Amino acid sequence: MTSLRPSAVFSLVAVGLLCTACPKSGGTDGGGPVDSGIGNPDSGMTPDSGNTPDAGTQDAGPSPDGGPVCTPLADAYCAEFELCEPSNFAVLVGDLHTCETLYNYKCQALIAAGSSLFADPAGCLAQLTANCGAFDSIFYTATQTSGPCAQPHGTLDAGAFCTFTSQCQAGFACNTNGACTGTCVHQLDAGAGCSLSAQCDQASGYLCAPTFVPPNTTNGTNICQIPNYVDGGAQCAIGSSQDCAPGFFCSSNLCTPVLPLGALCDGGTSLCNTLAGDTCLPNDAGNATLCTGYPVAPVGGACGQIGTDFVQCDGNAACDSGADGGIAGSCVALPTLNQACTGQCAPGLNCTGGNCLPVCPNTL
Q1: What is the C-alpha to C-alpha distance for residues 213 and 226, in angstroms, rounded to an integer?
Q2: Gap between the Cα atoms of 327 and 187, Å rounded
Q3: Is residue 161 a contact partner of residue 182, using CB atoms and an 8 Å limit?
Q4: Could you tell me the pTM of the whole model?
Q5: What is the mean pLDDT of residues 15-26?
């Protein structure tokens, strides 16, 4: 099952559906999305009391109709995702219909849970669709904890049942251990030693990172702290308390603008926009290396090692190399809702008990 980008509705379609497996142009290990939430703060939804755990089933499954609150956000988000990150979009969700269905599924689940919502939904939507640089910045924790796309904290205290971290008070996270529901648990305080960003209060912008020591190193000790994202020409260290802002990559300890699609690049020190799924590859003539989106094939298309290219299948398919286990094959459609399965299912579904069933919305 593919994660909708890396954990809130904005992580849809990877997420991060935004892409948890894709390298980033900048940012620390937690530089991707936190659970940003979605919806209309005027909807009158009452936060869950936290007294009763959810049964943990998602019987209805994803629906393409998100209603008046979710549908406009889904339409705008997915259109921008396809435009700005075409390779990631194709591999993670495959098509607009799938993207919008999954986005609406999580959006509606957040609203039903009474989750905290955007500080300014209209302003956040405008930021999301302003340009591809603004779109990419949505997936940085700093963007999700300040400005129009910030998500207010919830009201649930320690031990209360929850589905999303956005239901919990500041300093707490929803610990589900992979289930559909969990409980609000206290996160490490600012400055505390840590090994993973998930231990820190990511909803407030804290990540697990060593402190940057100018000009080009760190103190080597990971603590929960809020990183400083800097831009062109500033000193940096990847994964430290001072890393690069969206649109820049920390190269030779200086934040350098990422290269656009089609630009000449050096395969040894690529500055291609890896967040968008671009990589530095030889051109067809073999006389130059260019920033290129990785090739993706639809259902029925050829996949695997095709000549000098490694072709992936889109989100709705898997590469079947045949009985001979060759290096090339064809993209075969993944089973969909309630169909029999033995492994991978279509996006938004898990193979459970031999059938494709909806995932918990907090895993998208």
Answers
A1: 15
A2: 45
A3: yes
A4: 0.75
A5: 31
